[in-house]
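Record passed on underneath.
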Amino acid sequence: GRVARVARRPVTGAAKVAGLLLAVAARHDGNGGTMRPSAVNGSPGLVFEAGGAVVGVLGFTVDSGRITELDLVVNPEKLVRR
């Protein structure tokens, strides 16, 4: 509801996930944003910032040294620290 043009169902398969991530990156290319590695809920992840604010968080689930799941949060209401 709050974020337009986001996958509403899980995206599976390496090629489809890569395509989705490339599309998201292309949509935001050139907006002056930054990306930094960070712990996300105690696991490896990335934090995306633009204009001094967090605009997205990508968390990785890692099993046996491989990324098995990506969880992307871009809903502004879910990115607020409480």
Observations:
- The beta strands are 34-40, 43-50, 53-63, 66-73.
